[in-house]
Amino acid sequence: MQEDLYWLWLSKLNIEAKAKLELLQEYKKPEIIFKQSKYNKKLLEELEKEIQKIEKYGIKIINIYNDYYPQNLIYIYDAPVVLFTLGNIELLKEKSIAIVGARRCTTYGKKVAKEISRKIVRNNYNVISGLAKGIDTVAHLGAEGKTIAVLGSGLDVIYPKENTNLARDIIKRGGLIISEYGLGVLPEKIHFPSRNRIISGIAEKVVVVEAGERSGSLITAEFALEQGKDVYAVPGNITSFQSKGTNNLIKEGAIPYTEIMDLL
User: Fold this and answer.
1) pLDDT at residue 1 tops 70
2) Stretch (H or E) spanning 125
């Protein structure tokens, strides 16, 4: 519990993830960093209360030195120093493929996302996505529990609210929900690009099913390319707004996805 307290404090520091990693590189342990800072008894008491609340929720704090911390994620330049996890942490040791796409997706997009998700699981990968409406939701459902949902909020603040039951079902069926944000952190707009780097960071590969020209899914694809991952895009109808982003990705060099063997 005491060690988690210092990791919690470091995760809450209002500095960029890269700066936190640099502090760890210099001081090795968050406890040493904490003792270099200005702190008081009240801060310690607040952290202890939050740790107790975290434990009450059944949340586990996986720090960057922990054996369960995803190996792929360690190597990105701005890796989160901790992951707050709820569910089956064994999935963090297994290989995952990300499926992302438009919130306002088509019937075609839903059908394809579910089919890819099911086939990924049958080939011994987990499905990782962002619990958003649309393609993310369908991808999680298709995985039937073999899935990791990455949130842009605290684990006690499921967003969107209509996916609260989906989050519970994921945990119930042996899946996992994770976040770099502590309890009570709201789903602010700025959190979602950060969330996307974790999705691509953990994944072996990223599949974009549908995306508009300015879709958040394209940010995930950009992170994946920066991280040296293969990006796949599902070709779509050239008259469909939801396929403009994916068709552009293919023009720019993404691998077209037409069947599961493209991915495997």
Assistant:
1) no
2) none
User: What are 256's two structure tokens?
Assistant: 């077209």
Are 196 and 219 within 8 A, CB to CB?
yes
DSSP letters spanning 181-222: S-TT----TTHHHHHHHHHHHH-SEEEE----TT-HHHHHHH
pLDDT tens for residues 82-101? 999 999 999 999 999 999 99
Residue 133 clears pLDDT 80, i.e. is over it: yes
Distances (CA, A) of 4 to 1, 66, 156, 178: 5, 11, 18, 16
For 81, 85, 212, 246, the CA distances from 70, given in Å and listed in that order, are 12, 12, 30, 28
**Domain residues for 246?**
89-263
Q: Does residue 74 sit within a domain?
A: no
* 68 inside domain: no
Residue 221 falls within a domain, yes or no? yes
For 14-25, the pLDDT digits (tens) are 999 999 999 999
For 60-71, what is the mean pLDDT?
Answer: 98
Residues 170 and 210 in one domain: yes
Q: How many domains does the chain have?
A: 2
Task: Check whether residue 128 and residue 12 sit in a common domain.
Answer: no
Asked whether the predicted pLDDT for residue 134 surpasses 80, the reply is: yes
**Distance linking the first and last C-alpha atoms of the chain:** 41
What is the SS3 assignment for 60?
strand
Q: Residue 39: what pLDDT?
A: 80
